Amino acid sequence: MVRSASHAERHASDRLGWLRAAVLGANDGVLSTSSLIIGVASAQGTPHAVFLAGLSGLVAGAMSMAAGEYVSVSSQSDSERADIARERQELAADRDAETGELAAIYVGRGLSADLARQVADQLMAHDALGAHARDELGMTDAGSARPVQAAFASAASFGIGALVPLLVALLSPHALVVWTVAVASLLFLAILGVAGAVTGGARPLQAALRVTFWGALAMAVTAGVGAAFGTVA
Fold first, then answer.
1. Which ranges of the chain have pLDDT less than 70?
2. How far apart, in whole angstroms, are the C-alpha atoms of residue 29 and residue 65?
3. Predicted pLDDT at 194
4. Which residues contact 187 (CB under 8 A, 6 or more apart)?
5. How high is the pLDDT of residue 21?
6. What is the SS3 string spanning the chain?
7. What is the phi-psi region of residue 201: left when phi exceeds 0, alpha when psi lies from -120 to 50, beta otherwise?
8. How far apart are CA 92 and CA 109, in angstroms?
């Protein structure tokens, strides 16, 4: 069966850049904010103190995620630019050697030496730097570093995730805050795990169980610390 020339395939790897930042931000937003709220509530904090802890966690966490992601991805972007500049210099210094290097890569992938050389010659004639960036350095447009995009995605997803336990804490009776926040947060974490797994083409049940287990453990530890060091007003 011959495929249409307009046929286009979409793969999970095309979404890995923004997916990683979004899932990480949302998970961290739910987990860190709910843990803060549960810790303060377990320490017999007042409703005002519980709300202030959750709101502070949301703002500080979103800014921290944005800054951390921007710095991290900027470092990756700097490395990519340095590699591209080095490759450009090598192409200018000895183009034939670079063609042979590219042909050797294709031989390693299963092409015959003659065919690999023909492919390398044609790709070098079309876009030498692009061919080396893709096949030698492993750089693609889909996977290229985008610091600003990653920073905004992390901050926004963290804020959305953090809103869940914060809103639940506001709407719940103060005596039940620990339990309602814990249950709602674990449920949302499981949903995030399933959504991330489905979007990325992984197993949803395994992802949901993994994120729920570690979320429950973090909340239990924080509740224990709050109960141990808290005082009744």
1. 1-21, 139-145, 199-201, 230-233
2. 9
3. 83
4. none
5. 64
6. CCCCCCCCCCCHHHHHHHHHHHHHHHHHHHHHHHHHHHHHHHCCCCHHHHHHHHHHHHHHHHHHHHHHHHHHHHHHHHHHHHHHHHHHHHHHHCHHHHHHHHHHHHHHCCCCHHHHHHHHHHHHHHHHHHHHHHHCCCCCCCCCCCHHHHHHHHHHHHHHHHHHHHHHHHHCCHHHHHHHHHHHHHHHHHHHHHHHHHHHCCCHHHHHHHHHHHHHHHHHHHHHHHHHHCCCC
7. left
8. 26
d(CA 69, CA 86): 26
Q: Give the per-residue pLDDT at 1.
A: 43
Torsion of CA 20, 16, 63, 213, to 10 degrees: -10
| Phi-psi domain of 10 (left: phi exceeds 0; alpha: psi -120 through 50; beta: other) | beta
Tell me the residue length of the chain. 233
**For residue 129, what are its two tokens?**
């730097």
End-to-end CA distance of the chain: 75
Q: What are the sequence ranges of the domains in the chain?
A: 16-226
What type of residue sits at position 17?
Answer: G
Burial of 51 (0-12, 13-18, 19+ CB in 10 A): middle
Sign of CA pseudo-dihedral 58, 59, 60, 66: positive
Write the single-letter amino acid at 100: G
Report the alpha-carbon distance of residue 28 to residue 65 in Å, rounded.
Answer: 9
